[in-house]
Amino acid sequence: MGGSTGYAIGIDVGGTSIKLGLVCCDEWNITARTVIHGKDYETPDAFLTSIPAAIEKVCAEAHVRREQVLGIGIGLPGCVDSLRGIVKDITNLPNWRGEFTIKKALESLLGIPTYIDNDVNLMSIAELVRGAGNGCRNMLCVTLGTGVGGAIIIDGKLYRGSTLSAGEIGHITLFKDGEPCNCGNWGCLERYVGNAAIVNRTVRAISESSLKKDILMKSIHNDLSRLTPKIICGAAYDGDELSQHIWEETGSYIGIVFAAMVNVLNPDKIVVGGGVAQCGNMLFKAIRKTINERAMPVPAERVELVPAVLGADAGIYGSAIYSVKTEFHEEIG
Amino acid sequence: MGGSTGYAIGIDVGGTSIKLGLVCCDEWNITARTVIHGKDYETPDAFLTSIPAAIEKVCAEAHVRREQVLGIGIGLPGCVDSLRGIVKDITNLPNWRGEFTIKKALESLLGIPTYIDNDVNLMSIAELVRGAGNGCRNMLCVTLGTGVGGAIIIDGKLYRGSTLSAGEIGHITLFKDGEPCNCGNWGCLERYVGNAAIVNRTVRAISESSLKKDILMKSIHNDLSRLTPKIICGAAYDGDELSQHIWEETGSYIGIVFAAMVNVLNPDKIVVGGGVAQCGNMLFKAIRKTINERAMPVPAERVELVPAVLGADAGIYGSAIYSVKTEFHEEIG
């Protein structure tokens, strides 16, 4: 290592651990990495102690000098002001409440330009630059998991919107008079295709549907509390009819909202990641079918629906890339 | 006039007439204007004869020299390839079928740079530059009439999408198992709030609803064939309960889709024009109520919902501005 190569630090803050990587700016590969455990960042002070030490560690391991580190990027699972570099609220880090001026604090500690954003925005940057969205001009990036998140790439740049909150596709109304959602709306997409919703729909179908469900019931030993999207997915691939129905329905729900996004955003690609997306082809086929049935023909034909490829490292890549590629930095409008 | 002031020609092609204006580039005001009637442009050849003559006429009237005309913009109510300047299909001009290379043809006739786009895109440019959207960075522009059209301004520029078809909000699914639409989907917004749909919903409500409808029935002399959105609107303002209900319902349907757009696009403003928007405050209040109820709080608080202000001249302004302001010209991606 060494020489004049530039590096960036990517920091992916999760609810229970932080993944930190030293990323080489030539090829955007992770050169060294470490993990910081929950108790070492449960307060902003602890975070500001742990991060410099972890950066020291990965640089030493890779024989990279501090001057070669051109930027630090931080992805956070919550509400952040990316423009001013302030963390507003991270549900899973209650001790961070209040306005944590994370950018300023780290910059004065380390003297390295620091940028923050939410995790879905950074995943979209990672997939755009070195993942499934490579070469795209216009792209929608979606995570399907506990919630449904989205980020929009327009003309090769992250589009954040007028209050930095663009891309919230999870709270689009799917059913006008549907179930109430935490966001205050009813019938949001997330209420039907989030992790918990998939399980709940399956529980209901088990008691109401006449479709065959032996494979599924065997795999959970008849114990409904064992149901997870992963198990329902496994049963579907093993031929369980009820489970297959659940995924077709899930795909059709997601497809209705994706078709709307195809009509409105007319993207080259929709990149889909997150735990629920692990269901793979069965889910993607159902989404694709609905897009083809419902979206306008020309944009529907153009759009590619592809799985995200960077998995658990998307956060490290995205935050590192974001910290040094200025086209992703927002301007005050 | 005369001197060194620059001018642009704005051409708004409608189904039954063309409005053409000479627009001053300093203040974007219409200096002179003329109308071309249907038979004088029913074929591409007729169009290519009429337009140069009309330009000659407005320039002469305003004492503007040909060299002062810096650009020609043309707005068309249908499917156009704005990138290559080709008209693909205009439903109301059947003799234009085939690929009419309108940009090339006019440029070689007149030697003036010529640009084309669809009418909703050009309306959005007009409202952005000298209308209700002035000063916006991110904006959604919507026309409510026979159909429901949309155009998106991102970062002060028209966003056209990867196949130049972005902004099609009229064919977003409102009701999953709703009425079939010409576009191939079912339950599209347009099937519930387009002109014909508003009338149909009113006819149904007249036979099914117990709301008071005397004022409405009197205004159509009990003849349902006289129903139009305008009449239903007049009755609503006169206190007719059934008509008021129709507009509240119309606003809630539009509001569901606007709330989705607020979540995804996070715009500064939504500018709404077209015949149905003439219903004014009663409709706007119902839309606003639904946005507030359904969209995420931060982007909902930011977005302003405002009526378009340029009315029937939006097409002339938009096409003229488009022809000379390069930030609105698309690039090959």
Automatic annotation (TrEMBL), chains A, B:
Coiled coil: none annotated. Gene3D superfamilies: 3.30.420.40. Signal peptide: none annotated. It comes from the Bacteria. Pfam families: ROK (PF00480). Belongs to the ROK (NagC/XylR) family. This is ROK family protein.
